[in-house]
Amino acid sequence: MSAVAYARPQRGEPAAQPQRIEIVTTRAQRRARPKSFYAVLAVSAVFALFLAQLMLSIVLSDGAYQISALQVEQKQLSRTSQDLAESLDLLASPQSLAQRAEALGMVVGSSSPAFLRLADGALVGTPVAAVGTAGALGPDGGLVANSLLVPGAATLDPAATPETTGAPTLNPASTSVASSNGELPSPTTR
Amino acid sequence: MNNSRSTRRRLAATVLALVATVMLFSGRLIDIQVVRAAELNEQSLGKRSVAVPTYGVRGNITDANGVLLASSVDRYDITASPKVMHGLADPKNKKPIDAEAQIEDLAIATGETVEAITAALNADPESDFAYIHKLGTLEVLEAVRALKIPWVYYEVHPSRTYPNGAVAGNLVGFIGTDGPQAGMELDYDSCLAATNGSSTYEKSKDGVRLPGSTVTTKEPVDGGTLKLTINSDLQFYAQEQLATQAIKVGADWGTAMVVRVSDGHIMAAADYPSVDPNDVNGVPNTALGSLAFSTPYEPGSTFKPMTAAMAIDQGLATATTQVIAPGRIYFPNGQYIKDVWAHNDIHLTLAGVLMNSSNTGISKFSDMMSQQTRYDYFKAFGVGTKTGVGLFESAGSLPTIDKWDQFTNYTVAFGQGVSTTSAQMASIYQTLGNNGIKMPLTLVEGCTMPDGTVTSVPDATPTQVVSEYAADQTVAAMETIVSKGSLSRQLTIPGYRIAAKTGTAEVPENGGYGDQRIVSVAGMIPAENPQYVVIVTLGKPDIMKTSAASAAPFKNIMTQVIKTFRIEPSGVPAPDMPVTW
Fold first, then answer.
1. DSSP assignment of A29-79, as one string?
2. Fewer beta carbons under 10 A from the terminal one: N or C of chain A?
3. Does residue B210 sit at the A interface (CB-CB below 8 Å)?
4. Are the CB atoms for B144 and B154 separated by under 8 Å?
5. What's the CA gap between B419 and B298, in Å, rounded?
6. Alpha helices, DSSP H only, in chain A?
7. Do B493 and A112 touch (CB under 8 A)?
8. Residues 6 or more apart from B368 whose CB is under 8 A from it?
9. CB B332 within 8 A of CB B355
10. Looking at chain B from residue 255 to 294, which residues have their Cβ under 8 Å from any Cβ of chain A?
11. How far is CA B265 from CA A64, B64, B260, B444, B529, in A?
């Protein structure tokens, strides 16, 4: 049974002025009412949880995008590294080295092998000067084919390659290797 | 009372409406979540998830020092969608793309002609896929991507490259459209082949992987690295020398092999002609394999040291045993065998027989042994049996004793009437140089799988074929060929003791022997304790039909062997061995 007191306006009596009716709560009722603080706390906690979940999922998706971007970058870099390794292997091939060596004017050593023993500086074998025109590649540019090498591209063009610190630039077209009558100067050893 | 009834009615109506709505919704819910759940799940997953094959990488082939002979690389196929292109270029569009200009840019970037690209795009205008450029390098790919053409895409195409070109190309082999076709690529495919894996992930509308959704159903497994026994620099030099000489004397083919005596490892096996695996169409079909293993021929006089070793091993002779070598040996039916030069009876020791390469002389030593004995020795040396290296090798042919007529009985002693490959000959000389112990000829050191285990390690079982004394005496006798023989100047390297045997073999033609020759020189260094065997063979030279043709490349390759492996000069000269008496 509601304990709310309510007033009924008196019938037939002219109402001079409407009485202000105030509904008041009893003290017991007021005490029984749940504290608003707890309600605010509960609701804000729920909101905080929602917010937290939202932030987490934002960060997660952001992470997913970052991973995707990094994976793309990694793929690019590994492709570039593979391509460079391939170029390096090609430059290290015997055909490429022989072409560059001969472009520099180098010749194959003589048919009489001689060694310098580092332990005591002794000369082992009979050294004979190399013949000035003997190259590893014949006049037709080598008989062991390497179709990956572009013919004529063996000489390094300093304009095309980046400057390396300290390493001298190779420009075989302009500098000629000093040769004394086709004989290599023999080293003087003990 | 009216009010309460109407209130109750209104209440009841509202509740009824509510219940009806709830039932409708829950009915639909049950339908979706329970009844059609599986089907809808699958549909949505199919739209969201992507099954991606993850590729394993085919293993590399390297030489003994790790130099790459064959490696796996990525190439990129540039593709296009004609349908998309025609759609975008449609003049009815608000902003049609300038397809012609884009095709021109594409042509410059890929190196294809404008006509070729246009043809590819117009071949099937409704198709979603057409190849613009196949197997492009990274440079091409980046140039194409920089153009940002909306109807051009690309695919990764794993490919194979051979950075050293034709160096060891005959041994490494090559890959065709259906897989490996020849060489070690084919023989050791089980080592080199990779297994592809697959993984599934769910992607968002813009293609980003949904976090936590990657499921790897199968890990890819890379192939193992195959390590050969070859020294690639020596191989290059041998190929170059062989090709130069073969062209100079007009030979049809040639082989050059360097074998390490102590373990039978092949340091170089050169062929002429030889294939560059990057450009397989550059040589005739006959040159796609390795002639050193696949092509048998009658070896000729290089067989003689084997016969000498047999006789010494049987205790019937030493290097200084004396015989009289007649100019001809006649058979009852009038046939005869003779030497290359006409002579009367000459007094030769076994060393002298080898030095002069006397057919009649070696026949005298051959007569000291029974046919069965000689046949067993031939088999023990590996004649008529494959070396086991692979490469579509031939076993050659050694006729059984019942097929030896009186002629063959003698000719097998000096290498006619029997055929071998260069590899088998190299193995024979390896045995003679290794104190009579035959090591199986080996081209592969092993296959290293990605997890570190080493498989395919070849068999290394030694076999004593002749005694150490027999082998040493034979090598000592062979030294006279280099020190005193007719080719002494062409074969000598100052400061080094070399043992060698020359061979000028006749080639069977139409039931007899024609005037073609197969010339070879086989030898080892240093003679006092052999470390390396070198054997050079030239087939059917047009000019210089004697073994002098093979002498020059033999000496040059021998010199390179000295330099590569730092062989010290022999301290003392060869002891004087009597060749006549």
1. HHHHSPPHHHHHHHHHHHHHHHHHHHHHHHHHHHHHHHHHHHHHHHHHHHH
2. N
3. yes
4. yes
5. 4
6. 27-32, 36-91, 94-103
7. yes
8. B311, B314, B316, B317
9. no
10. 274, 276, 278-279, 282
11. 54, 10, 5, 8, 17
Residue with tokens 């069977």: B508
CB B84 within 8 A of CB B150: yes
pLDDT above 90: percentage of residues in chain B: 56
What is the distance between the alpha carbons of residues B275 and B289, in angstroms, rounded to a whole number?
A: 8
Superfamily of segment(s) B232-565? DD-peptidase/beta-lactamase superfamily (3.40.710.10)
Place B203 in a pLDDT band, splitting at 50, 70 and 90: confident
Which residue in the block uniquely carries the two structure tokens 């070198």? B534
Strand, helix or coil at B478? helix
Which residues of A fall within a CB distance of 8 Å from B247? 143
- The two tokens of residue A2 are 């509601």
Q: Mind listing the pLDDT tens digit for each residue in B108-141?
A: 988 888 898 888 888 888 888 889 898 889 999 9
Mark yes or no for CB contact A144/B71 under 8 Å: no
Q: Which residue has the tokens 């009367």?
A: B344
**A113 to B563: CB separation less than 8 angstroms, yes or no:** yes
Could you tell me where in chain B the CATH 3.40.710.10 domains are found? 232-565
- Local structure of B317: helix, strand or coil: coil
Chain B interface disruption, residue of A143, A149, A150, most B CBs within 10 A: A143
CA–CA distance, A127 with A180 (Å, rounded to integer): 17
Please determine, for the modelled complex, whether the ipTM score is greater than 0.85: no
- The CATH 3.90.1310.10 domain(s) of chain B lie at 54-193+202-227
CATH topology of domain B54-193+202-227: Penicillin-binding protein 2a (Domain 2) (3.90.1310)
Q: What is the pLDDT of residues A44-92, one digit of tens each?
A: 999 999 999 999 999 998 998 899 899 989 999 999 999 999 999 999 9
Cα–Cα distance measured from residue B27 to residue B35, given in angstroms and rounded to the nearest whole number: 10
Instruction: Inspect the interface and report whether the beta carbons of B161 and A112 lie closer than 8 Å.
Output: no
Task: Name the CA dihedral angle for B488, B494, B500, B506, rounded to a multiple of 10 degrees.
Answer: -40
Global pTM reads 0.80
B104, B132, B140, B151 from B112: Cα distances, Å: 10, 8, 11, 17
Is A119 at the interface with chain B, CB within 8 A? no
Check if A81 contacts B (Cβ < 8 Å): no
- Is A145's CB within 8 Å of B166's CB? yes
With tokens 């290498």, the residue in question is: B415
Task: At A105, list the tokens.
Answer: 């004017």
Cα distance between residue B515 and residue B297, in whole Å: 15
User: Which residue in this structure is represented by tokens 């040996």?
Assistant: B329
Best A58, A79, A120, A144 member to test B by mutation, with max B CBs in 10 Å, is A144
Nearest chain B CA: its distance from A41 CA (Å): 32
In whole angstroms, give the CA distance from residue B299 to residue B158: 44
Q: State residue B497's pLDDT score.
A: 94
